[in-house]
Design goal:
This protein is an alpha/beta fold and 340 residues long. 46% of the residues lie in helices and 16% in strands.
């Protein structure tokens, strides 16, 4: 007697395994999705990097800024060159106010500021950046049964330094003591000023070249070439920048600066400035006292409230000591102070 089925039999799945082709398609789909995610993460990472970098930038905080007609005129000349996208090289004696002027101008440009100090040891890498570490990662592909695909990825992490960051994002670079760096370290500026491109010699492919942002600006500051430790830059570089010589401020401006910084009255500030001017006329250039030295002496006078001749002589001697070669040289310099 036969058995008659009363309902149709259902087969749960027509195939028990995926084909190799389907597995490959699945892998490619997952790789595509992974690439899209990585691209989004890369964009987010770049934005976070910019935010992190900007949070560490030097924000010009110029305190007790004094702007007389002469200062305004000097500042206007520099800003005119910068508006034409030319770099400006401010040259002047130590302590005359080059740096604070550069900071104030950078502040008025309204862009984030990158700060760099030049010295004998500075290299191109210090300017543009380099590889900070090498990361090794391993990838294991286990999608396909009995097939193992191993891949080691060597990834070098590049870190941008001030010049590269400024070129990329259009920031203002203040390169203080520019001429104390060896000329070879500054060769990288040539392509920036002539072609508008920053070349990263140790990078590869498209990342080797950075197109300079239209808002990128540079302000260099230096002592005159006759100062010790100064290097003359290449003519090719000097020809691409506007040079402005800045001397000590006039009597009125310097006394206002000293009075505002130290809070001494203008009468005593003028007295001190007159002494500084007299010393500059008599002392060797390398031993001259700038406005910064005047502010230091004024602070000490304000603290002691003692404006007697012996006190002023002693304070000036304390400042001159750091500019003397030895005790004999110091005594020679102090003879000039005593004659005042």
């Amino acid at each position: 007697m036969g058995y008659i089925a009363t309902h149709k039999r259902k087969v749960m799945g027509t195939r028990m395994h995926e084909t190799l082709e389907e597995k490959q398609m699945k892998i490619e789909a997952e790789e595509k999705e992974s690439n899209q995610i990585n691209s989004s993460l890369s964009q987010i990472s770049k934005l976070l990097e910019i935010e992190k970098v900007e949070s560490k930038y030097l924000v010009p905080e110029v305190k007790n800024w004094v702007e007389t007609d002469s200062v305004k005129a000097l500042k206007g000349r520099i800003k005119n060159w910068l508006s034409l996208k030319y770099p400006v090289h401010i040259i002047g004696p130590t302590g005359c106010g080059k740096t604070i002027l550069a900071l104030q101008i950078a502040k008025e440009l309204g862009r984030p500021v990158v700060w760099l100090n030049g010295d004998e040891s500075i290299t191109t890498t210090d300017l543009i950046g380099g590889y900070s570490q090498v990361e090794v990662s391993s990838i294991r592909d286990k999608y396909i049964h009995n097939v193992f695909k191993d891949k080691d990825v060597l990834k070098a992490e590049w870190i941008d330094n001030p010049l590269t960051l400024a070129c990329k994002y259009g920031y203002t670079l203040i390169y203080n003591e520019f001429s104390r760096a060896k000329p070879a370290a500054n060769n990288v500026f040539l392509s920036i000023f002539s072609e508008g491109v920053l070349e990263l010699p140790t990078q590869f492919g498209e990342e080797r070249y950075v197109k300079v942002h239209p808002d990128f600006r540079v302000i260099f500051t230096s002592n005159p070439i006759e100062y010790a430790g100064i290097h003359r830059a290449q003519d090719a570089l000097l020809d691409r920048m506007a040079g402005i010589y800045m001397d000590y401020h006039d009597r009125e401006t310097e006394s206002k600066i000293i009075a505002k910084h130290s809070k001494i009255d203008e009468k005593n500030a003028l007295m001190l400035v007159d002494m500084l001017i007299s010393l500059r006329q008599k002392l060797p250039e390398e031993s001259c006292l700038g406005t910064r030295a005047g502010v230091m002496v004024a602070h000490a006078l304000k603290l002691t409230n003692d404006y007697s001749k012996p006190t002023i002589k002693q304070l000036l001697g304390n400042i001159i000591t750091s500019k003397s070669k030895n005790v004999e040289h110091f005594r020679e310099l102090m003879k000039t102070v005593e004659k005042l």
